[in-house]
Design brief:
By secondary structure, this protein is mostly beta strands. The chain has 5 helices and 10 strands; from the N terminus they run αβββαββαβαββββα. A hairpin with a 5-residue loop joins strand 2 and strand 3. It binds iron/sulfur cluster. The site of iron/sulfur cluster has 14 residues, from loops.
Length: 218
């Protein structure tokens, strides 16, 4: 209990490995079914390699500025430093506050011609923000969609009690890709709990609002 309130003590780690996916890193605020707001924070690098904690597959959070400078892409072998997270239930990435990057081996051009999934340099936060996201099946996120620039694992905070500002935390999968993507599946509807009442259900209704600015092919 004390741990979830006070958090863990972050420690500095070194890591090294090959980038196997780059996705936007986001925070989503939920309040019943009235509101689902996506905040775009930077990127998550999914890396196969090793860290000084002994992890073999791990996620490193980086800022948009860092990605614009380094232009990381899938297949690059890189190393860097970072800090372990303070609140495990709030942050999907294993490591954040990363830096001291070094590219050990730059991948050859890996543009995927036969999208989906879309495997290329990820777009800016402004692009993700403008497109908006739909619910994505978690099993698709883990498999066919994992390398896609439009796939997303969000840090979700649910406003559980407004008066006392108590929140609940979990992780959810979303897709920013074209609505016509043939791989797309929404997955199960998601319940959104609130104190002293039945959970509200997000059954995709909010997806239409979140992506109303684009048509099927965009
Ligand atoms: S469903 Fe979304 S994340 Fe998956 S391949 Fe299609 S656009 Fe990419």
């Amino acid at each position: 209990m004390a741990n979830s309130i006070l958090g863990n003590n972050p420690s500095k780690v070194n890591w090294q490995g090959e980038i196997v996916s780059i996705q936007p890193r986001t925070r989503v605020w939920r309040y019943l079914t009235d509101n689902r707001t996506h905040y775009h924070l930077g990127y998550n690098l999914f890396i196969e390699g090793c860290s000084s904690e002994g992890k073999r597959l791990y996620t490193v959070a980086i800022s948009e500025k860092q990605q614009l400078k380094m232009l990381f892409r899938i297949g690059d072998v890189i190393e860097g430093t970072a800090w372990t997270k303070q609140y495990a239930e709030r942050e999907f990435s294993d490591y954040y506050r990363s830096g001291s990057f070094k590219i050990l081996n730059r991948s050859v051009d890996n543009l995927e011609i036969s999208a989906p999934p879309w495997i290329m340099l990820p777009p800016t936060m402004q692009t993700y923000e403008g497109r908006g996201a739909r619910l994505l099946s978690k099993s698709l996120w883990e498999t066919k969609c994992f390398k896609c620039i439009w796939a997303n694992m969000a840090n979700v905070e649910i406003q559980w009690d407004f008066d006392k500002d108590i929140k609940k935390y979990r992780f959810e999968t979303f897709c920013y890709g074209p609505k016509s993507c043939k791989l797309y599946k929404m997955g199960r509807a998601r319940s959104v709990p609130y104190k002293n009442r039945d959970s509200a259900i997000d059954d995709g209704y909010l997806d239409e609002l979140c992506t109303e600015g684009r048509d099927e092919e965009e």
